[in-house]
Amino acid sequence: MTAVNTITPSAADERKIQSVKRMKEIMTAYYIDAKTAAENNKKVAWITSGGPVEPLIAMDVIPVYPENHGAMIGAAKMGIDLCERSEQMGYARDLCSYARADIACATVDGGPIGGLPRPDFLVCCNNICGTVLKWYEVQARYFNVPLFIFDTPFIHTEFSIEAQKYVRRQFEEFFVFLEEQCGRRFDGDRFEETARLSYEALHLWQDILDTTTKRPSPMTAFDAFTHLALIVTLRGTRTAVDYYTQLREEMLGRVARGVAMVPREEHRLLWDNLPIWYRMRWLSETFASHNASLVADTYTSAWSGMGDHFDDKDLVGALASSYANIYINISIDRMFESLKKKIQKYEIDGLVMHSNRSCKPYSFGQYDLQRRVMDELGVPALVIEADMVDERAFSEAQVDTRIEAFVETLRQKRVS
Amino acid sequence: MRELEEFRRVARDPYTYAESLKKETGRPIIGSFCSYAPEEIVVAAGAVPFRIFGTRENITRADAHLQAYACSLARGSLEEALAGKLKFLDGTIFPHTCDTIQRLSDIWRLNAGIPLHWDVVLPVKLNTESARDYLAGVISKFRRDMETGLGVEIGEDALIEAVALFNRIRGNLNTLYEMRRKSPGLIDAGDLHAVVKSSMVMDRRDLAAKLEALVEALRRTEPRDVDGLHRLFLAGGVCSHPEIYSLLEESGGVTVWDDLCTGTRYFEGLIAESGDPVAAIADRYAIRAACPAKHASLVSRGDHLIRAVRESRARGVIFLFLKFCDPHAFDYPYLKSSLDEAGVPSMVLEVEEQLPPEGQLRTRLETFVSLL
Ligand code: SF4
Ligand code: SF4
Fold first, then answer.
1. Does the distance separating the beta carbons of B66 and A364 come in below 8 Å?
2. How many structural domains are present in chain A?
3. Are the C-beta atoms of residues B101 and B71 closer than 8 Å to each other?
4. Residue A7 falls inside a structural domain
5. Of the N and C termini of chain A, which has fewer Cβ atoms inside 10 Å?
6. pLDDT at A8
7. Structural domain of residue A168, as residue ranges?
8. In what order do the strands lie in the sheet with B230-236?
9. Residue A180 contacts B, CB cutoff 8 Å
10. Is residue A5 pLDDT above 70, yes or no?
11. pLDDT at A358
12. For residue A4, is it within any domain?
């Protein structure tokens, strides 16, 4: 039933993204560095995926991302085991599966890489959810290490003056916290350099995601999910900038040569919410078999969107806006505006929403968004129920049927 | 007892109460979701704060907006709004707490058909200087937004008066709780629940007087004999199932204190009556027992629980959680192990709109109580 069978090996080879190999090398080196940090007298901080990492890098602290680790656990299909373990520890099954997997993993050093290196301190930024606050509290107690909370007030109808001031002030507090943890003065110059590198990578990432405005699209959201790892873990470093420069070259080359990730791209789709890590391949093949290409998503662009706030004259202010205005920290009406722009920019035929039991702040409101996208933009929208890491919440048969019916709708719409 | 009648009536049917209050006085009724809604400002603006509790009926309309994995408080409240049962509300306040309320606020603003809407985007931490400044800033902002929304001016005197009024109310609720902690046979737990619930709904001036009258009446009351019952403590979120109290008694237990949103967390802590009232309101939020969606410190919730349990001389703790409530579910293993270390037995009850089937619940409670 998958289109893959019908394609000659050489065409499939050509479709492969060459840079993946380089990315894997970088990620391996990064995790080796992190896991041997103590031997090299380096500090390790655990930080949330949307957290302000630039000051850490400026202070030579190795940032480690439990969410990225959660994604790895999901992709390695090790989620159920760890989630069940956390349930035995008393954590309800309805909690975020990144958190559950990580909390359990810390106690057994399990998962695909034998657990994360022990943190010296934790940095939690709640611009993605309130879950991370609770999760990091749990880990701060477990490891008995300090926790820095970077609080980014949610933006319903406005990013108030009060909130702007508050976020800015926390940068100053963060610098002081780092001085205490590292036992030396905060390096302002290196911080600025890091911030610039960070924005450079964010802009490159946007360029890469934008190559999918072309028909046929040189990559899909599934590739974006994979290549996101570096913008999460290594933004602020030269490595990330170099890597994304290379990846952008490759993507532009593919555009020039007309290489399509989905061979007979017919339907261009937009994905909403986190990936379903343990079914990436299946989903990608299923969509491809229907000639549907997921050319964009709201998740990986949450990071590139941060690039819009760049201001070379006020880097702290720019970062404050970038971190507070992240996609999931804004109201559903603002989300709708953003969806609308994407639908126009990427010439989207249909929206696929992953209603993710794990991620309440991302998933609640989807029904309203779905309705508005259909009614106001005339774009069909599908909701599929799943979870990003906990496979128990996934029914392949059900999702398969839904996708098929959805593609049928798209087809009919095309004909009429 | 005559002094209890009105509380029972209001708790049973808060909507009818609010509707007639509005008709009689013409004052705006302002809905809110949690104990972090600055009710003092609402009262100073001449309006009546009204706590929304959700529904116990079947949820159908809310299904179009909220997935089944949202807590029953969010789903149930939305259901009530969409069913038109909250038409008497002039506006709603959404203090920022959990991820669910955060999104419910958007959905509510766009669908509930209630004219006014205020988001009070509180800080998530309460223990740093910048967070406290921000907190005070948010409350001043809310005061301004409320003035604009209702077209009134909230004078300094009105605010000072409202603060004093809430101190009276909270002080009396606290007294009631303390009286009952000393002598649990003085008033039924179900009645006390009705008193707290109506305190979140009634005209606050009227309420203050009625609470005082109740305290006086109870001073003259001979407590019922409950010596054979085990003293219990309730901890968790919202309790909208008062029938649990009688079930508990039938199982051999009696609640003597709680750490609930619909309990002590609503009234604990007084507001300083000197200095800037807005700053004083903010200070109370920063020092009172924190809800799990807020961060006061890594250990404050466990410490608070142990202290409160000790003071109450409770023999066991019953955790009462709404299913799908993240903040409480995250704290549970930690709180449970704090209790374990202190040698206090506990059990957990997870409820949705409905309590678990009565027979099953009774067996669980009886087993727990018999082991104390
Ligand atoms: S998946 Fe959602 S709930 Fe979980 S950590 Fe990420 S943003 Fe928070
Ligand atoms: S704190 Fe819990 S019960 Fe309250 S709204 Fe949030 S999820 Fe629901």
1. yes
2. 1
3. no
4. no
5. C
6. 57
7. 16-415
8. B253-259, B230-236, B316-322, B346-351
9. no
10. no
11. 97
12. no
Say if A84 falls within a structural domain: yes
Q: Which amino acid is at A250?
A: E
Residue B129 contacts by C-beta under 8 Å, 6 or more apart in sequence? none
Contacts of A149 in chain B (CB under 8 A): 124-125, 295
Q: Kindly list the strands in the beta sheet with A147-150, ordered across the sheet, starting from the edge strand earlier in the chain.
A: A62-64, A44-47, A121-125, A147-150
Six-digit token string for A294 = 């997921």
Question: In the prediction, which pLDDT does B239 show?
Answer: 80
Residues of B in contact with A361 (CB under 8 A): 99, 102-103
Q: Is the dihedral of CA A390, A392, A395, A396 positive or negative?
A: positive
Q: Which two structure tokens, joined as six digits, stand for B190? A: 């179900």
CB contact under 8 A, B326 and A95: yes
| Among A100, A70, A66, A69, residue whose Cα is nearest residue A83 | A100
Q: Please, are residues B71 and A360 in contact by the beta-carbon 8 Å criterion?
A: no
Q: Which two tokens stand for residue A2?
A: 């998958």
Q: CA dist A227 to A46, A208, A219, A301, B104, Å?
A: 21, 10, 11, 12, 33
**What is the radius of gyration, based on Cα positions, of chain A?**
21
Q: Residue B325 C-alpha to ligand 1 middle, in angstroms?
A: 14
Please name the residue that has the structure tokens 């203050």.
Answer: B208
ipTM of the complex: 0.96
**Amino acid identity for residue A327 in this structure:** Y
Query: Contact A156/B65, CB-based, under 8 Å?
Result: no
Of A232, A230, A253, the closest CA to residue A243 belongs to A230
* Mutation choice for B interface testing from A98, A152, A154 by most B CBs within 10 A: A154
The mean pLDDT of B126-146, rounded to a whole number, is: 97
| Cα R_g (chain B), whole angstroms | 20
The one-character DSSP state at A294 is: E
Q: Coil, strand or helix: which one is A274?
A: coil
- Specify if A2 maps to a domain: no
